[in-house]
Design goal:
Blueprint: E1 6-9, E2 29-32, E3 38-41, E4 46-56, E5 61-66, H1 69-75, E6 77-79, E7 84-86, E8 93-100, E9 106-109, E10 113-121
Antiparallel strand pairs: 1-4, 2-10, 3-9, 4-8, 5-7, 5-10, 6-8
């Protein structure tokens, strides 16, 4: 049995395709730009791109807005706060914060695939303050402390 994602298409996305998995085993649903005309993101700049969608995630799940690897590879464009988190109780429009790390202006056209949405289960924990933590082999070793690579 599959989990259901309820999607509301907003008026500025009436003619756009709904998010879909590109392949049978894809993890992410493609999100599209619901903009009028075109939007240009200059090198080193970022922009909030609307999708024209609002979603109702199942309880106990989150939506992770992730970059599209092709945009990052070919243009240096990625999701600025990757992964962006959509909480299950959020009902506003899904927007994607893109940044252009490339050297050329990047143009987005209406309907372009700009990011992917991965639906994942969420575990909420109970917080217990303690005086000390148990010892481990790693201890307080931080960045790079587990090996040379």
């Amino acid at each position: 049995m599959s989990t259901v994602l309820r999607i509301q298409r907003l008026s500025h996305a009436e003619d756009l395709e709904l998010p879909a998995y590109a392949t049978e085993q894809a993890a992410g649903l493609d999100l599209r730009a619901a903009i009028d005309g075109a939007m240009v993101i200059q090198p080193g700049r970022h922009a909030m791109v609307p999708t024209g969608l609002a979603i109702a995630l199942p309880a106990g799940h989150e939506g992770q807005v992730r970059p599209r690897s092709g945009l990052a590879h070919r243009h240096g464009v990625t999701v600025l706060n990757s992964p962006g988190t959509i909480d299950a109780d959020y009902r506003g429009e899904v927007k994607v914060m893109l940044i252009n790390h490339g050297h050329q202006p990047f143009t987005i056209a209406r309907g372009d695939r700009i990011a992917q949405l991965v639906i994942a289960p969420v575990v909420q924990v109970a917080i217990h303050e303690v005086e000390a933590l148990d010892d481990t082999a790693r201890g307080e070793g931080g960045h790079g402390s587990t090996g040379v690579s």
